[in-house]
Specification:
The structure is a single chain. The protein has 623 residues and is α+β, with helices and mostly antiparallel strands. It contains 21 helices and 28 strands. The chain is 36% helix and 20% strand. Keywords: Aminopeptidase, Hydrolase, Protease.
């Protein structure tokens, strides 16, 4: 019955067709900019900062809150990281290195120029405001779409320079006449036999963490936290993720879910009632926190709670919540076992996909868009896969160098001749969320391509083989993946790894493996990606991504040590490996990994597929 329910979800868990409805009108971006400037002038605003997120600080917000993309024309189905600034004579859009090429192209003719927020020539947005505004001027933001932490930093810097902040400037209420409505998709229960823990147990563990942070109540704003805590999911609120728009309040005597009534079903209502969870309207949350008793010490996460909601709180706010994010990120043994089932299913789909690519790429009929459609169909052929975990990144040759490339009808190219094909994709299985990148050679690869591919692979292997003491943060291990590129004066500027959710978000915190300082240590049960890459603009891109589970290694007189276990199940392209620059241990790692992949997947494959797998996992040697 549950699998049938999953099948019925698919039509609703498809991405919003926002491109067709809102982003195919690039010529109107200049008009949008004109309307915004008129509105700013009438409200006494000299500069406006436009967030790319929602009141929950979602990485990929629902279409209702994707106004920055509508305004600038810089967009993708997976969402784009970007923050815009508009003054009387400037229109700028900040983004990170994943989007430099894409943003430069998409912002042409819109009136906006790209600004780099990391890497060489990066400019801090707030510093830019301070340097380009005069004393007495006013910056406007919609406080509901900025976190407490960001808004406080912005306000402090502006105040120090005699610049005012107006945090009640809901930009798109004024200038976005055809704005999509807030999503009203129906909720469903994630089978607690698969989850391995009841919502009641999770809520009790959350309250233990709340008290450890010297609070007696908590308001959860992050949508993945709420989905995890309640074991509730939906189809369609967020592209490629089964989380839903809501808030959750908890204390020792009360549990309240703030959600639109239209989203409820009888099954969900009964399920929540079983765990004493009340239902209140989504829009009532501000009035609720305004009337909480003064003695309430309300725990809120300043990184995920909006400035607008913070301004409404009438009791004592307590900043924190890292412990709750940690609870979500540490998976139980049963969750990891189910997750590995999802990886097996994903490996079967990928085997069918890459076999098809090899057979048909010389026909000239395959394109990037067509490959995306076929990969989706192969994943969804399994009834436990309800959607992709993000829009696939399928880049042929120079498109592979666009880190978050998404093929469209305008950019689509045929897969023909020799080259490198980069495929970054994943699935939302009820057993877990997958994420994998493989770069494969079609035709004969060049020596340069093989060399660069092997540098990236060496970094992936080095991180995979790491042993580290308990308490180590991902940032302390990040250099292991970059060292071989750095030794040749080469680099990539995106993170090396992110946490992965369990039928929630593909990207999950609080842990990560990146150059930025992230205080959360790696713990047993966390799932992380391992995805070093290398990108030559106009030529090719390379990325090799596996998922890692943190496990115990051994305890010595220096304390407990941890290690990673690679759990992704699909071969690495042997034709791209240059063994002359690999160590014996690295070659052994590849062979051990391929033996595991072959042993796990072969029983699930047809005889033809099993023979293909045998060849792709043959022993790698120097000869």
């Amino acid at each position: 019955m549950f699998f049938q329910t999953s099948l019925n979800l698919r039509s609703r868990l498809r991405p919003h067709n926002i491109k067709a409805k809102t982003f195919s009108m690039e010529k109107k971006n200049l008009e949008y900019l004109r309307l915004l400037r008129e509105t700013m002038k009438s409200h006494g605003i000299d500069a406006v900062v436009v967030s790319g997120t929602d009141p929950h600080q979602s990485e990929l917000p629902p279409a209702h809150w994707r106004g920055r993309e509508w305004l600038t024309g810089f967009w993708s189905e997976n969402g784009t990281n970007g923050t815009a600034v508009v003054t009387a004579d400037k229109a700028l859009c900040w983004t990170d290195s994943r989007y430099f090429i894409q943003a430069t192209d998409q912002l042409k003719g819109t009136g906006f120029s790209m600004m780099k927020e990391n890497g060489p020539d990066a400019v801090d947005l707030i510093d830019w405001l301070v340097e380009n505004l005069n004393s007495g001027q006013t910056v406007g933001i919609d406080g509901m779409t900025f976190s407490i932490a960001y808004a406080q930093r912005l306000e402090q810097e502006l105040t120090d320079n005699d610049i005012k902040l107006n945090d009640k400037f809901p930009i798109f209420d004024y200038i976005y006449p055809y704005r999509p409505q807030r999503p009203k998709n129906k909720l469903f229960v994630h089978d607690e036999k698969i989850v391995g823990e009841s919502a009641d147990s999770k809520i009790r563990r959350i309250m233990t963490e709340v008290k450890a942070e010297l609070a007696n109540a908590v308001l959860l704003s992050a949508l993945d936290d709420i989905a995890w805590a309640t074991n509730i999911r939906t189809a369609g609120d967020i592209n490629f993720s089964p989380i839903f728009v809501a808030y959750l309040y908890l204390d020792d005597s009360r549990r309240v879910l703030f959600v639109d009534e239209e989203k409820l079903t009888g099954e969900v209502t009964d399920f929540l009632a079983k765990y004493n969870v009340e239902i209140m309207p989504y829009d009532s949350v501000a009035d609720f926190v305004k009337t909480l008793p003064k003695e309430t010490r309300l725990l809120i996460d300043p990184e995920t709670t909006s400035r607008g909601l913070y301004d409404a709180i009438g009791c004592t706010p307590v900043f924190g919540g890292a412990g709750i994010a940690r609870l979500k990120s540490v998976k139980s043994d049963s969750m990891i076992a189910n997750f590995e089932t999802a990886l097996e299913k994903d490996g079967v789909a990928l085997t069918k996909f890459f076999m098809m690519v090899e057979k048909e790429h010389t026909s000239g009929k395959l394109t990037e868009v067509e490959l995306g459609k076929r990969l989706r169909a192969l994943r969804l052929a399994d009834p436990t896969c309800v959607d992709e975990s993000f829009a696939p990144i399928i880049g042929w040759n120079e498109h592979g160098a666009i880190i978050h490339y998404e093929a469209t009808e305008e950019t689509d190219v045929a897969i023909e001749g020799d080259g490198l094909l980069l495929v970054d994709s994943g699935g939302q299985y009820v057993f877990g969320t997958t994420d994998i990148t493989r770069t494969v050679a079609l035709g004969t690869p060049t020596d340069e391509q093989r060399h660069d591919f092997t540098l990236v692979l060496k970094g992936n292997i080095a991180l995979s083989m790491a042993k580290f003491p308990e308490g180590t943060r991902g940032g302390q291990l990040d250099v292991l993946a970059r060292q071989f590129l750095w030794n040749e004066g080469k680099a990539y500027f995106h993170g090396t790894g992110h946490g992965v959710g369990f039928f929630i978000n593909c990207h999950e915190g609080p842990q990560s493996i990146c150059t930025r300082r992230r205080p959360a240590p790696l713990e047993v049960g966390m799932i992380n990606s391992n995805e070093p890459g290398f990108y030559l603009e106009g030529k090719y891109g390379i990325r090799t991504e596996n998922l890692l589970v943190v496990e115990p290694w051994k305890t010595t007189e220096f304390g407990p040590f941890l290690q990673f276990r690679t759990v992704t199940l699909f071969p690495i392209d042997l034709s791209l490996i240059d063994t002359s620059i690999m160590t014996d241990d690295e070659i052994k790692w590849v062979n051990d990994y391929h033996n595991m992949v072959r042993d796990r997947l072969t029983p699930l494959l047809s005889p033809e597929e099993a023979e293909w797998m045998k060849d792709k996992t043959r022993t790698l040697s120097r000869s």
